[in-house]
Structure formats: C-alpha cells, structure tokens
Amino acid sequence: MYRSHSCGELRAENTGTNVTLSGWVSKLRDKGFVVWVDLRDRYGITQLVFDEERSAADLLEKARSLGRETVIQVKGEVIERASKNPNIPTGEIEVLVKELNVLNQALLPPFTIEDETDGGEELRMQYRYLDIRRNPVKNNLIFRHKVTIAVRNYLSEQGFIEVETPYLIKSTPEGARDFLVPSRMNEGQFYALPQSPQTFKQLLMVGGMDKYFQIVKCFRDEDLRADRQPEFTQIDCEMAFVEQEDILSTFEGLTKHLLKTIRGVDIEKFPRMTYDEAMKRYGNDKPDIRFGMEFGELNSITQHKEFNVFNTAELVVGIAVPGGNSYTRKEIDKLIDWVKRPQIGAKGMVYCRCNEDGSFKSSVDKFYNQEDLAKWAAVTNAKPGDLILVLSGETNKTRTQLSALRMHLAQELGLRKPDEFAPLWVVDFPLLELDEETGTYHAMHHPFTSPKPGQLDLLDSRPGEVKANAYDLVLNGNEIGGGSIRIHDKETQAVMFKHLGFSPEEAKAQFGFLMDAFQYGAPPHGGIAFGLDRLVAILGGQETIRDFIAFPKNNSGRDVMIDAPATIDNEQLKELHLKLDL
Ligand code: ASP
C-alpha cells in the first residue's frame, strides 16, 4: 500500500495514528538536529519531521539528502506540532517519520513549484506536467471538472442524452478553415476534423434523439488571435420540436444552475436585447452590461454647425466616462493616441469636459457653444465630473472603435469586476453578413440557421436585412454560447445554399447527406453550443482560457511540450500519398 492517507487529510484528531504517505518533496528545512520536509500531493501538504532524538541517525541523513520533487513514501506517527501553521488545513500536526522510501528521483525542476513561480509562460508550457503540480493550475483543472460534472448532471436530469459524434468527417462550415487528415486507404482523399458537430447533431434529431448534448472537442484552423485555441471544447446541444423560446429557457436554466452551484450567484431572469439594439447601444454584439457608458448618437445635434469632420460622418457617437473630468490633458492625449493606433484605427477623437459647476469645455469649442454641449451631455448621459469622448465616421467602424475604447476604459477604471455576473441574451441576429473584401454574403451563424418566419422572400432584394432565428448568450462581455433554430426542409435549405453561392451540384456534394435526411421526416429543431473553456474561465473569475486547459497550445498553435506540429518522414508521406513541394 503506497498510502493510507493523502497529504491534505490529517488533522489534530489523527494524533497518535500510524500513517503511510506518498508524494513529492516540496520543501526541506535542515536545522542540523532536526529536518522538516513538506510532502506534497494533489490534496495538500503535510509536514514531515526527522530529528536527532527520535529518528535513527541514518534516517536523518537520508532525509537531509532529499532533493526537491523527489517522489517518496514515508511511514510514521502523527504528532501534534509545536508551532502550528493556521494557513494550511494540516497545520496542527506533523508526521514523525520512522521509515523513508525513495520511490523515484527527480531532476531539479526548471522553475519553482509554488503558487507564485519564477517560471515564465513558455517554460511553464514546456514543462506543463510540472506546472500542473502548482496550486493555481491544479485548482483550475479541478474547477473545470466541477463545471463539466455540473453540466452533465443538469442536462442528464433534464432528459438530455450525451452522444458521441465522429471526429473524422467532412467539412462542417462554421466560418473557419478545416484541419485536414489525409486518408491512407483512400488515395488523394481527406477527412476534415469537425469545426463543430453541427450536421451530426441535426442528423440525431432526424434520428429521433430529441434532446442531445455532448462535451466535445472542435477544431478550427484560424489565424490565432490572443486567447483562442485551434482545438477547444464545446457543450454542444440540440433539441427537436422546439421554438427559440424553448431553447432560451432551457439553456438559461443550465446557465443559472451553473452560476448558482459554482458561484452561489442567483439571477432571476436574463435580460434580452436584439442584435440591432446591442450594436446601437454598445457598438458590439456581446456587450458587457456590468457597467453603463452606453453610446449616445450625436448626429442630429452636431451636424448643422461648421465642423466638417462631423458633418461628413455617417455616425457621430459618444460615451461618458464616469469621473473622467479628472483626467489631465496628457491622459486625454494618451487616450486619443490609443484610439489612433492601427489596431483601433480612429482618425481622431473629440472630447468634452463636464465641469462640476455644470459648464463644459470641449476640444471643439470653436464650433459648439455651451447649449450644444449640454445636449451632448444629455444624450450620452454625462454627469458633472464626467468626460465625453466622441468618435465619428462610417457607422460600423466607428461603433467598433468606440466599443473597444469603452472596454479599455472600463478595464482601467476597474468596472469589469470578475465576481459580478451579468448574462444577456442577444437575439435576432442578421442571417447574412457582407464580406467587405469579396462583396459576397455569407452566413453569419452557419448555413443551417433558419430565417425569421416570412423573411425568406427578402433574401433576393435586401439580403443584409433578413433576420435569423439566431441567438447568443453573452456573459460579462464574452460570447459564451450561440445557436439557432435550424432549417428542417430541403427546399429552404436549397434556397439558403443558393444565396450563399453554392451551385446545386456543390451543395449536393458537400451537404447532400443532410438534404437527403431532411426528406425522411426531419422534425423542427434547434440548438446551441457553449464554449466550455471560456465559460469555465469566466466562472472562475478569469478571462484567459489557456489557464483552464491542461495542455494548451501557444499563440502560434504549437504545443511546445511535445513539440507539435512536426515534420514527418518520407515513408509516412508516401503511405499517405502526399508529396511535399516546399
Ligand atoms: N454549431 C454552432 C457553433 O459551433 C452552434 C449551434 O448552432 O448550435 O457555433
């Protein structure tokens, strides 16, 4: 038996018991006549003691020579500590060791295995197995487990069945590039790894599995933006015989359950907002509504003066920064530089100070008098002591810029509190999205999303205006879930493919199996998928998903621990009928 107890288990009431413990040497303090060793395992730390009086001399010597992270087993007696440590659960006792077995030696770890380590990110990733020994990483993985178990239990109680769908499939378009796997047995042919199990879960609905879920890996070959992973996990769900309202209430139920059981937070009802409203009020389809700073559109009150920048702009829009009048000129200039960076791309920014005495001082005083500026304050909801910041230009771009500024300021002002939770449903997304580069439309959610009833006819004349039965669940400014009511008849699906630029032949080649299935009695259905990594991170009060993934990839999509991706030898290439032409 390697152990009778874990290293986090023993308490004062165990005093006098003989125990066997196994674990890693975390710390060693050698006072000459006495040696203390902190023994660590997943459950905690127990202090071991060896001393001149009570331990055999060779045992003391052996203890003294233990290196950090050596794997050992000890047998001994639980005794009360002379000086207790109230900071750890086992702090009242120590184990007087009578027998010490070294189970395995360890090299000196390249960074300290402590809560605050001296190891940088890259080094920690390279030795992730050592990083996982550290509390912050270990606790995040345990936290993730708690969330996934809660999800499974809740959905199972609601009658959902977890079904596994294949990983070696044909492309499922979610708007990213596919990861491809060459087929050895079928020369010149490739599988695609699923961007999501979308088509399979729809086929399960045709199969009559009317409540499906799966905690599943998805793969998207995108240029990696910060904090995206090429493989990530979804809580993927689908239901048959449902309308949008059924989906929203079912998954509001799941999210409420998680907030309650994981964080002890009660939220009565999640607010809802249409996509159009979210864009107008926050410039963003995933607004963080934990704080105000809502957009105020100033076109009608700014555009009949001499200020040409505003007169020629499609949109003039501002926000009020709470307490922002305390910013120095230098600080405001820094903000102006911030929005002018290429990543944001604003040409400039107008500001207006709201003084405590009710007067205003703006950077465009030449064009706007106190009465005009009072109107700006009214529209942006600015109070005395605030600072109004105004951007102008093409509508979509300007909204995106101001939204980025709003989030940046909120972060700086500490308004994005990690332990405050503000969920929001965003509904009525557009069905199609214009690709500015190619001038063509593509599905905003995916091609299987149904248009709102009665809007199919608009597809020809005003495609950009057609709304979809599509919804996102937003939590604290992050999209944590998204889904839609699906098309479930062949004809509508064919119309949709046509509008997305597929010829009937292409549609048949790529999605014939789904269109065929629709002819065998497909029930009305819809669903949603949550991004588990992000959900866990936010519930954990953080936003970096990497910290909640056991073996994440870095920003270039590499696993630096196993050193993947890697080249393969010619033999393997040949077997796969591939030739590298670099
Ligand atoms: N398959 C979709 C996605 O990955 C989710 C859904 O529509 O259910 O975003």
Describe the protein in words.
29% of the residues lie in helices and 24% in strands. It contains 17 helices and 22 strands. It starts with 17 loop residues before the first strand and ends in a 7-residue tail after the last helix. It has 582 residues and is of the alpha+beta class. It folds into 3 domains: 12-104, OB fold (Dihydrolipoamide Acetyltransferase, E2P), CATH 2.40.50.140; 138-163 and 195-272 and 423-532, BirA Bifunctional Protein, domain 2 (2-Layer Sandwich); 291-412, GAD-like domain (Gyrase A, domain 2, 2-Layer Sandwich), CATH 3.30.1360.
How would you sum up the global shape?
globular
Structural class: alpha+beta
What is the tally of beta strands?
A: 22
Characterize the biggest β-sheet.
8 strands, mixed
Global mean pLDDT: 96
The radius of gyration is 30 Å
Relative helix content: 25-40%
CATH architecture of the largest domain: 2-Layer Sandwich
Ligands in the model, by name, code or SMILES, are: aspartic acid
Low-confidence stretches: none
Strand arrangement within the widest β-sheet reads: 6-9-10-22-21-20-17-11
Cα-to-Cα separation, first versus last residue = 56 Å
- At the first level of CATH, the class of the largest domain is Alpha Beta
